[in-house]
Amino acid sequence: MIFEPGERVRTRNDNPEGHTRLPAYLRAREGCVVRSLGAFPFPDERSKGNRGAAAVMLYTVRFEGPTVWGAGGEGLAICADLFEPYLEKLS
User: Fold this and answer.
1) Closest Cα partner for 7 from 67, 69, 89, 79?
2) Taking 80 as the threshold, does the pLDDT of residue 1 lie above it?
3) Residue 11 contacts residue 32 (beta carbons within 8 Å)
4) pLDDT tens for each residue of 27-63
């Protein structure tokens, strides 16, 4: 699945064993794709010793403060570079 800038997404709520580049505080959060950064080897697979891991798309996703930190996040936002397998399209 390819995401376009402006598309709304939700991060998966996975808690995988081993390495992941999806921060726990951003799991199951809704955000907006800002830009596509291209395809890179998926680090979750490479950490398991799979040096031939397939390249997957990497996106910058913006999360509004209240989505991440609740009412204390008013007026704040955070951007994170997240791999496609971490994201689900919102309808």
Assistant:
1) 89
2) no
3) no
4) 999 999 999 999 999 988 877 777 777 899 999 999 9
Q: Where are the domains of the chain?
A: 8-89
**CATH 1.10.357.10 holds for 8-89:** no
Contact 49, 23 (CB under 8 A): no
pTM above 0.90, yes or no: yes
- Encode the chain in three state secondary structure: CCCCCCCEEEECCCCCCCCCCCCHHHCCCEEEEEEEEEEEECHHHHCCCCCCCCEEEEEEEEEEHHHHHHHHHCCCEEEEEEEHHHEEECC
Name residue 10's beta-bridge partners. 30, 88
- Cα distances from 29 to residues 38, 55, 71, 74, in angstroms, run 22, 24, 15, 16
